[in-house]
């Protein structure tokens, strides 16, 4: 009976060690999840190009260029372009019907 009791006590000790290890792993995973939540709160995947979109500003949503766009966009995300050259800022939009780029000046 003493041998059985000792075996039982050893099993409890082993379980306590495993439980402690699991608690540390869970704490590490919670920390990782919280970090990822923070990242996701600022970025979402666009689904098209794999770029991330920053919700605070528009970087990543559209291309930023320093020359006037002349290409024909292949998808909707490429139909919007942010133009910046020195202090000049414009938002270019491609009109598929007119097959031309138009822009509005930004301040």
The H-and-E topology, N to C, reads as: HEEEEEE
Beta strands, count: 6
Number of helices: 1
User: Beta-strand level of the residues, as a percent range?
Assistant: 25-35%
Helix share bin: 25-40%
**Overall average residue pLDDT:** 79
What class, by secondary structure content? alpha+beta
Topology:
Blueprint: H1 2-42, E1 43-45, E2 52-54, E3 63-65, E4 80-85, E5 88-95, E6 100-106
Parallel strand pairs: 3-4
Antiparallel strand pairs: 1-2, 4-5, 5-6
Structure, described:
By secondary structure, the chain is α+β, with helices and mostly antiparallel strands. The protein has one helix at residues 2-42; strands at residues 43-45, 52-54, 63-65, 80-85, 88-95, 100-106. A hairpin with a 4-residue loop joins strand 5 and strand 6 (100-106).
